[in-house]
Amino acid sequence: MSLALRIIPRLDIKGPNLVKGVHLEGLRVLGKPESFAKFYYEQGADELFYQDVVASLYGRNSLQDIVSKMAKEIFIPLTVGGGIRSIDDISCILRAGADKVAINTSAIKDPELISLASDAFGASTIVVGIEAIKQPNGDYIAFTDNGRNSTNKEAISWAKEVEQLGAGEIILTCVDQEGSGKGFDLDLIKKVIDSVSIPVVAHGGAGNMQHVLDLTSKISVSGVAISSLFHYDYILHNRCIDGYEEGNIDFLKSNRILSNIESASIAKLKSFLLRNNSLVRKI
Amino acid sequence: MKSPYKIAIIDYQMSNMFSIKNALNALGFESEITSSRSKILSCDGAILPGVGSFPEAMKHIKSLNLDESINGFINTGKPFMGICLGYQLLFEKSEEVENTYGLGIMSGEVKKIPKKNKETKVPHVGWNNVKRNTLLNGVQNIGPLKAFNDDDYFYFVHSYYVHPGNDNDIYM
């Protein structure tokens, strides 16, 4: 048995658009999520992670349409998060073609939702998202609503709690690192992994391929969720800004990428990791 | 390429049935998501999908009388495939959530994956290889999995595994 490290493009969705922020904020429109997703599937992504970044803020869930469209041509597992509040929401999103669901805000407001969902759909279908922000005293606090609202949950004990409640997986976002291209917060990721026995996917901070290797060569993460690195690579190859009327498209028009992100394709990252003895699934 | 065969995707109202339908479409198979006994039996093949917990699934299957339809279909000798939980349901019982009887079509039971050490993560999630069971003489090269190699990857997402009751039922 040799379980491969999962390379998971993360697509943040706002309305019909793929967006990307820094520290989960200041969202820029990058394009149509469908086109990015198809490209990533063909490039050898191991899973896709879709997050509706404003769903819990506005109490809506617009991902369902996108998910059912996507599931027709993409045959890798889809995890979908954002605005999932009930067993019915989970049923709907699974019926639309998702394979797993990710819950954050509702899990904190109503931890029993995790147990109910786990008993109904099986632990392995239920992913809990933890968005952690480092405090001046060094503690990590779990935030909700895409890093906007603080809670009274300390991130590492919350990770243990969600495992006890029946979560099958954790996707851990280091909000301080997210979108910054500064590298992963190895300290936080290691603390969470050491405190639970369910798989942990790390998200937030990859600015280049070496950052990913720095993480995977030292810490046994089950997967890495990556946005900027892949999104900017896609844009460099498939620039298309026509037809966008909603959201901030100045960035797309500006024809530049963030200077601290060295974009890379999934295929290139996988070859790099394989050359450096990190086991990934070859295509 | 269009296949002449039609596949029933058995609907017990809790699975990722549309993933299966989309995959069959892409492979050129006509398919129907259904819980009707006559529709299931009229198809050339049937798939029992599975996302969910064992007790919930059995509850749904019984309330829709699907246990009888599944048995009926398998008795026709036409190809039948259980995927993930849909495969586990074919066995006698499972310890997921609480001890629950399954369809009992195959001998064996479903158990929680034991944690061998700190590195073993349960659920088992991700792409992994499948190794052929070299202790099984002569049967490795028959059955639906004969086309796969030892280094091919399959996606896993589960906390439970099947402990078969009868070695002769194992094809790989």
Description:
The complex is a heterodimer of chains A (283) and B (172). Chain A is built from twelve helices and twelve strands. With 283 residues, chain A is of the alpha/beta class. Chain A has one domain: Alpha-Beta Barrel (TIM Barrel), CATH 3.20.20. Chain B has 172 residues and is an alpha/beta fold. Chain B has one domain (6-169): Class I glutamine amidotransferase (GATase) domain (Rossmann fold, 3-Layer(aba) Sandwich). In chain B, 23% of the residues lie in helices and 25% in strands. Chain B has helices spanning 17-26, 37-42, 54-63, 66-75, 85-88; strands at residues 6-10, 30-34, 45-48, 80-82, 93-94, 100-101, 108-112, 124-129, 153-158, 160-164. Chain B is globular, with a radius of gyration of 16 Å. The mean pLDDT of chain B is 89. The chains are: A alpha/beta (283), B alpha/beta (172). The A-B interface holds A 1-6, 46, 68, 71-73, 75-77, 91, 94-100, 118-125, 168-169, 197-199, 220, 222-223, 281 and B 14-19, 22-23, 25-26, 51-53, 55-56, 85, 96-97, 115, 118-129, 131, 153, 155, 157-159.
Summarize the topology.
The complex is a heterodimer of chains A (283) and B (172).
Chain A: E1 6-14, E2 17-22, E3 25-31, H1 33-43, E4 48-52, H2 55-58, H3 63-70, E5 78-81, H4 87-95, E6 100-103, H5 105-109, H6 112-121, E7 126-134, E8 140-144, E9 149-154, H7 155-165, E10 169-174, H8 186-195, E11 200-203, H9 209-216, E12 223-226, H10 228-237, H11 250-253, H12 266-275
Parallel strand pairs in A: 1-4, 1-12, 4-5, 5-6, 6-7, 7-10, 10-11, 11-12
Antiparallel strand pairs in A: 1-2, 2-3, 7-8, 8-9
Chain B: E1 6-10, H1 17-26, E2 30-34, H2 37-42, E3 45-48, H3 54-63, H4 66-75, E4 80-82, H5 85-88, E5 93-94, E6 100-101, E7 108-112, E8 124-129, E9 153-158, E10 160-164
Parallel strand pairs in B: 1-2, 1-3, 3-4, 5-7
Antiparallel strand pairs in B: 5-6, 7-10, 8-9
Concise synopsis of the structure shown:
The complex is a heterodimer of chains A (283) and B (172). Chain A is of the alpha/beta class and 283 residues long. Helices cover 35% and strands 24% of the residues of chain A.
